[in-house]
Amino acid sequence: MKQIEKYNVLELKLEDVDETVLTAECAVFEQKEKQVRVSAFRNRNKEYIVRFMPDRAGIWKYHISLAGKEIQGEFECTENTGDNHGRVVVHGYHFRYEDGERFIPFGTTAYAWIHQTEELRRQTIETLGRSPFNKIRMCVFPKSMPYNTNDPDCYPFEKKPDGTWDVFQPDPQFWEKLDQSIEMLMELGIEADLILFHPYDRWGFAELSQEDSLAYLEYCIARLSAYRNLWWSLANEYEMVYAKSIENWEEYGEMILRKDPYGHLRSVHNILDLFPKRRWLTHCSVQSSEIDRIPFWQQEFCLPVLIDECGYEGDLPYSWGSLPAFEMVHRFWQSVCRGGFCTHGETYHREDEVLWWSKGGKLHGQSAQRISFLKEILYSLPGEWQMPRYHGNNPNLDEEDEKAVREEQNFQKILSKTSRRTRENFCAYITPMKIEGEGYTLEYFGHFRPVYLDLKLRKDREYQAEIIDIWEMSRQSAADRLSGNTRVQLPGKEGIALLVTERP
User: Fold this and answer.
1) Does a structural domain hold residue 193?
2) Is CB count within 10 Å lower at the N or C end of the chain?
3) Start-to-end C-alpha separation, the chain
4) Which residue segment(s) compose the domain that 152 sits in?
């Protein structure tokens, strides 16, 4: 009996099929009381494929019926091993793998890496294997913009006689290349955050009709959803795909919710305002440098927030592509200590126009190793953390000082009369960038440079404090056996964090 590990892909081929449909819901997989219906997709002429990702150990039975062909069989699903933890799922404002293992997103961006030469794609995979990144934003369709002027060697579809795309004739060369790319990422433990539509297009993909777009999307679901490391990103900068309305996007989200049998994560990336809250959104994919707004977005959407685009480390003559490396690292720390997560990108000018942010290749910047330093720290902390709620109250208020309390009450009356944006900006300004977990707090000071911090610790416990330099990647003991109200001296420079942990 064939064996397959839990969360891996079982692939069944049907050949010499006299059928012309693009996809067909024709397969049923059963294990005890569980039943999963799966669609076949056309791969080549008269060749259809069914893919299935089992999520339970034991004996599974299947039945496939397509164009007069009947296939029945069974296989044994064994327990998952090693770094195979299944899909990533939402857990509060955090993420976990399907088997309960922690997943902290450390993303990067290489939009068009699958559209490059085989040599460059292999180099990208080798670079990712040495990097801290466990998620990559990438496009199905090729991209056209500065530093992206080359045509790919193949396209998702064949063309009609009039030169338009025929979405009902997928090019197997392209889709097999995409399959291979997702599989290579899976072997590295990297999530493929797959962007389905984008506006940077000179080939006509951004102007597909709604009927063609839905057919293409249904094909993606049938072909790709069995990969455990897949996320669905409906768009990059959805507002700029001018041929599509908000109702179109909603129809895509509903289709994925309905037809993806595994429930992969779903988001829509913006350029101006966040996509409206919908039942099929699993997390917020945000383009913004206003990282302090993460807690407000969490409150509004009740979802995890990923700053998937906050600018890129580089030196291009565009504001979005010329962040200093320190600023890229700072924004990662800022995002985490505001309760969210961040995504990296790199845009250093090169005469060969191979920039990581689009084509992949090699990393040339200085932020990746420092992002790895943050990743090591976060994975060393137990459990999941929370961030203190934003509020407009003076965090240093002495509640035993009656005059100070009255003045604070008067200030709150003034604050309540200001605009919502003013109140939010003020709350963000006075609320520390700090996360709290079981037995620890991690506070980041960003561009501020305090020379000390007064701590209010429990008197019946002992703590130790550690100064972290995010750029030098150093950890230095600041004090040991602390308790009660105490003061910790700090170096008075930017890029410093303080980790306070309870002693055993």
Assistant:
1) no
2) C
3) 51
4) 105-180+248-380
